[in-house]
Design a protein that fits this description.
Layout (H helix, E strand, L loop, with lengths): L7 H9 L6 H8 L3 H14 L5 E5 L6 E5 L12 H23 L12 H9 L7 H11 L3 H10 L16
Antiparallel strand pairs: 1-2
The structure holds zinc ion (ZN).
């Protein structure tokens, strides 16, 4: 049973093998087939330790980036990445917010003030607001939308704002 020479760890193990270790023994030790091991070892001897590269433009600023052709493609340069990843994260939570809002029951009590009992119910069931099924249950019980429940929890002072742990896009 042989494995493919497809990780940098395996390639590096070949590079680091002692010169006097026969290629057949090296191939056996790494569970590689002999021709692949021989070919790679000979190439490293000839050219040195090289890694195929590919070039790609940063999706945001267009600056060309060089990266290993073996790993996953980088989408952003180092300067753009933090902002870009935050943007992706925000889009993800906006999508989730919209899905939860869509799961809301009818807002039959929309114009009525929240009673103390409703507020207590919401506080006790707030963990259920993480899934569409839970949202449907809680909002139907209250006759209020997901948005109204979240607003009561986070902006209505019902729950101490726990900054960052549950980012909620503002409308
Ligand atoms: Zn960039």
């Amino acid at each position: 049973m042989t494995v493919k020479l497809n990780t940098d760890e395996l390639r590096w193990a070949i590079v680091c093998a002692p010169d006097d270790e026969p290629t057949s023994a090296l191939a056996r030790r790494l569970h590689l087939d002999y021709p692949t091991t021989y070919e790679f070892r000979a190439r490293v001897k000839r050219q040195g330790w090289i890694c195929p590269l590919k070039a790609r433009a940063c999706l945001d600023c267009g600056q060309m980036m060089l990266m290993s052709a073996l790993g996953g493609a980088k989408r952003w340069c180092q300067a753009c990445r933090p902002v870009a990843e935050r943007r992706v994260q925000q889009a993800r939570s906006r999508t989730k917010y919209e899905a939860m809002q869509a799961a809301s029951g009818p807002a039959s009590r929309r114009w009525e003030r929240w009673t103390e009992e409703e507020r207590r119910y919401l506080l006790e069931h707030q963990n259920e607001l993480g899934t569409p099924a839970g949202v449907a249950r809680v909002t139907q019980h209250l006759g209020r939308t997901y948005a109204a429940c979240m607003a009561m929890l986070y902006k209505g002072g019902l729950r101490d704002v726990d900054a960052g742990s549950n980012p909620e896009p503002t409308q």
